[in-house]
Structure formats: C-alpha cells, structure tokens
Design goal:
By secondary structure, the chain is of the alpha+beta class. It has 2 helices and 4 strands. Strands 1-2-3-4 form a 4-stranded mixed beta sheet, covered by helices on one side. The longest helix has 27 residues. The protein starts with a strand and ends in a 5-residue tail after the last helix.
Length: 101
C-alpha cells in the first residue's frame, strides 16, 4: 500500500508519521485491496489539522479533524474514517442480501 504524507506549516516528525502510518494500516484491514492513502497534516494558528484520505476497492473515503494536539486530531480523523468505512460495508452487504422481487 502506498501512503503519502503532506506537511504544511510544521516540521516533518518521524514519530507523528509512524503514528499516522499505524492508524492508516489498521484501516487497511477492512479492505481486500487498498490502493493508496494520503495523510495531510497542517497547523493553523493553534489548531492541528489531520486529514486522511483512503482509496480502496474503487471507493474514496476522506475524514479530517481539528484539535489542539496532532495525535488527538489523527485519532479522531481515524475514528471518523472507520465509521464511514463500516457504514459503507453495511450498505454493500445489505444490497447483496436484499430479497429480489
């Protein structure tokens, strides 16, 4: 899987990059084939913003969050993304098991 990082208004940190990489790889367990992921990390005044975008199984999932701590922003964006993925998978399963008339 290809994960690219974009840093805006903050210095690149190996610790933050490793943390975000682990979170994205955790999300890859939901898919058979995960194409790519983009992690955008930026700081605006006192807010740390994390945006995670995943391209997998022909779908695109995007979530972002704004917090005072970058780790918290990554955690919350990952939770939002996981919720989107779970909801999408439930819809797909419902369509497959819907009775036909």
């Amino acid at each position: 899987m290809d994960i690219s990082f974009h840093w805006h208004n903050l210095e690149q940190s190996d610790a933050i990059e490793d943390y975000a990489r682990k979170k994205v790889e955790k999300l890859s367990e939901h898919f058979n084939k995960m194409m790519s992921a983009v992690v955008r990390l930026r700081v605006e005044k006192i807010d740390h913003i994390a945006e995670l975008a995943i391209h997998a199984d022909g779908e695109q999932f995007i979530a972002s969050d704004r917090e005072h701590d970058m780790y918290a922003a990554i955690d919350l964006a990952e939770a939002k993304l996981e919720k989107q993925i779970r909801r999408h998978k439930e819809k797909v399963l419902d369509r497959k098991h819907r009775p036909r008339s």
